[in-house]
Amino acid sequence: MRIFKDDVSIVLCGEAGAGIQTVENVVSRIFKTAGFNLFTSKEYMSRVRGGSNSTQLRVSSNPKNCYCDRIDIFIPLDKDAFKHLYHRITDSTVILADKDVIGEIDKPFADIPLSKTAKEIGGIIYSNIIASGIILGLFKADFSHFEKIIKESFSKKGEDIVANNIAAGKKGYEIAGNILKEVQIEVKSDASLSEKMLISGADLLGLGALAGGCDFIASYPMTPGTGFFAFLAKNQKEFSVAVEQAEDEIAAINMALGASYAGARSVVSTSGGGFALMCEGVSLAAATETPVVIHVAQRPGPATGLPTRTEQADLDLVLHAGHGEFPRAIFAPGNPADCFYMAQKAFDIADKYQTPVFILSDQYLTDSIFCSTSFDKPKIPVKHIVETDSSYLRYKITPDGVSPRGVPGYGAGFVCADSDEHDETGRITESENTRKAMHEKRMKKLDGILNEAIEPELIGSPDYKNLIVCWGSTVETLKEALEILNDKDTALLYFKQVFPLHPKTSEYLKKAEKIVFVENNFSGQFESLVFKQTGIKATGYIRKYDGLPFSADKVAEELKKIL
Amino acid sequence: MASIYDIQGIDNAWCPGCGNHAILGVLKSALDELKISPENLLMVSGIGQAAKLPQYMKGSYFNGLHGRALPAAVAAKASNIGLTVIAESGDGDMYGEGGNHFLATIRRNPDITNIVHNNMIYGLTKGQASPTSSEGIKTNIQVDGVFEHPFNPLAVAIAMNASFVARAFSGDLEQTKEILKQAIQHKGYALVDLLHPCVSFNKFNTFQWFKDNTYYIENHDISDRNAAFALAIKEGKLGLGIYYKNDGRAVFEEQLESNKADKTPLYKRSADRNAKLDKLIKSYI
Question: How do residues A366-391 score in pLDDT, each as one tens digit?
């Protein structure tokens, strides 16, 4: 009898188009409805059909919001899938596979007759729902939840289809019953889940954008930035958001700026390559002092790189993007609540300081699905727009560098925005004194942005000797690694704003004897930034750049070695 | 003639005798006659000598990047449909650097006017070939003469069913004003390819050359797209006037969900979305 307690990692793998997504969607919703904590992450190939894609479902008694290498239950849907994740199979992995499909393999497995059973029900299409039934059956999730979600998902397709899918689910539960003779699963349900959302990182960022008042998006589809774009497109009617798919990323950012200049709260969503095309626009936003939020969902480069995989290697790009010098802010949320609140805040900071503001996410974060606490009555955005009079000066020099922002058509004044160096009226100038004053005015805004910077979050004992430093999407993984380490001398410092750095950054770092940066990139970009800003050197680092996220179990092992 | 668009004390960066002076005057007269208030006008331009025009008149402007006036103009109009929006720049800016946006904007058909100051040369960078330069002209880069075929903006626009396509010449103030007035009044995307001489860097397409090589198109049905296209691709002298007008196309900004139920500018709408957010958040629970 194999026993899995409190935290079970289930991995489904099959070719693109085989329906893994359907299983993930159905199973996730049923798990959540049945009151199980759930986190899913996926790795997939840049192709529409074939290959091997996998999804991990972590079902746990307490929230486990990150990827782990360990596979407890492995469901390869074909032989390639088995080979694809062969290196992650251990003696404790239970393999469930359809003998008719997978044939002979060199590991023991329990036969799950998906194709045969599906054909009996009415076609191979039902094998995904049978697989879903098996997974939920293993956890003894009440079948009423299964029926409810199936009815919701398939009612539009007719009663027969609903009935067949329910029959398929029942068959799955029966098969699970046989497996449970050899395997025991003990995961407690959690009553708090009835109040939680089941939501992807991309949608959390999107919700935050809506809460931040976003009403304009122009973007060009690019994985993994598209999820956020699609979220706003889906909600455009209800929230009155202007949505346009631009002809290229250059058009996208220039549209966002044109809209913002006219008073909209605009955003673009892209990934590294697309963002590279936007860089001149970033500089334009800064020169014209036009607010804009730029969501960059990172994937491995250079160039096309690994289009569907993950990395944290565009911090340097975002930090330095755009010619000339100007203020900016960069947020890098890593957990569900921060995705929402940082996205919301990005719009406020952009509008208040009239400069480009970045949300830096990645494939792992945007594609992952969390059980997230919900957000009650978000703060209503403040509109930083004034009605102009005939003496209005768009670029009035002020003590904090922020000029009151008018928009065309609102008041008796004229709103003259210029990418050339300009005077207070917005007209082109080459006067040295005006240039100097105007440049200082723009740079002055960085002080205000710094004043509102978000302090890094310390997780673990405040009396630490060892400090693990992370930013963005790795935080939940490192939190779990910290639990695995279970060392009172080690704490984790998580940065959700990576520029400008909060003034207390040095204080946190100075207290530590050992400082270890963990980053999903080759060169330690955040480590370099922190060194540049504070003069404090790391004593060690763990870096990963194979296109996959860190896993809590593996990173804990590596940390043990260097701490 | 005095215009409500006049402003004083501005240092003008154009060469004496440049066609841009005439275009500025004619545009101001057209706006005066159409009784468009400066407070409601938005000029969007790129970079180049032509793109400086909004600096020299009353009104709001967004002087953005080289080649990128159109996307900014389209989006500004979408965010505040009450504005009169004119996107203007030179031939290199609109047809070269911004070529993709030119095509996409015709497809979108926003209710904006697009004035392209076409002097067939790069002026501000001191005389290199533009997309509309004549074959054979020599420059400091095209040292043996241009060998690429010139871009035909009118033919491209008509081929794509642009809703208003015209060509004018800065040497004829009265007719140019009338063409501009019709372009601004047209509901939809209106292209005015506005020929003018560059007195400093184009020694081939001079004022006299334009006089000798243009004519006004006559007896032409502007709703006839095939006839318009035939005129646009005709070799030889360049025809002036309105080539094509199609009032049947829906405009971009009115098809956006954000403007369907509510025509007020985006910035004037309520910031309180909590009831809607609450509903959306609950849909994930």
Answer: 999 999 999 988 899 999 999 999 99
CB pair distance less than 8 Å for B273 and A426: no
The reply to whether residue B284 touches residue A240, judged by beta carbons under 8 angstroms, is no
Q: What is the dihedral of CA B40, B42, B43, B45, to 10 degrees?
A: 180
CB A379: neighbour CB atoms within 10 A? Answer: 12
Angstroms from B1 CA to nearest CA on chain A: 23
Query: Could you give the ipTM of this predicted complex?
Result: 0.98
Residues 31-90 of B with CB under 8 A from A: 38-42, 44, 47, 52, 54-55, 58-65, 68, 71-80, 82-83
HEC-encoded secondary structure of A139-152: CCCCHHHHHHHHHH
Per-residue pLDDT of A300-345, as tens digits, reads 999 999 999 999 999 999 999 999 999 999 999 999 999 999 999 9
- Give me the helices (H) in A405-493, please: 432-451, 475-485
Chain B contact for A244, CB < 8 A?
A: yes
Residue B235 in tokens: 């070799």
pLDDT digits (tens, 9 = 90+) for A408-426: 999 999 999 999 999 999 9
The verdict on a CB contact (< 8 Å) between A255 and B74 is: yes
Determine the residue among B40, B260, B285 to mutate to test chain A binding: the one whose Cβ has the most chain A Cβ atoms within 10 Å.
Answer: B285
Q: Are strands A466-471 and A490-495 parallel, antiparallel or unpaired?
A: parallel
Whole-angstrom CA distances from A98 to A44, A103, A104, A489, B71 are 22, 8, 10, 48, 54
Residue A120, SS3 per DSSP = helix
Q: Peptide bond before A302: cis, by omega within 30 degrees of 0?
A: yes
Count of all residues that appear for chain A in the document: 563
Q: Which chain A residues are within 8 Å of B266, Cβ to Cβ?
A: 215-216, 240, 242, 259, 262-265
When scoring A414, A425, A434 by the number of chain B Cβ atoms within 10 A, the one with the most, hence best to mutate, is A414
Residue A417 neighbours by CB under 8 Å, 6+ apart:
A261, A288, A289, A290, A394, A426, B61, B62, B63, B64
Instruction: Give me the residue from B73, B261, B265 closest to A258, CB to CB.
Output: B73
pLDDT digits (tens, 9 = 90+) for A148-190: 999 998 999 999 999 999 999 999 999 999 999 999 999 999 9
Tokens of A302: 């250079």
Residue B242: closest CA among B201, B197, B198, B181: B181
Res. A146 pLDDT band, cuts 50 70 90: very high
d(CA A7, CA A16): 27
Rounded to whole angstroms, the Cα distance separating A516 from A518 reads 6
> Any idea which residue has 């043996």 for tokens?
B144
Query: Rounded to an integer, what distance in angstroms lies between the CA atom of residue A555 and that of residue A139?
Result: 28
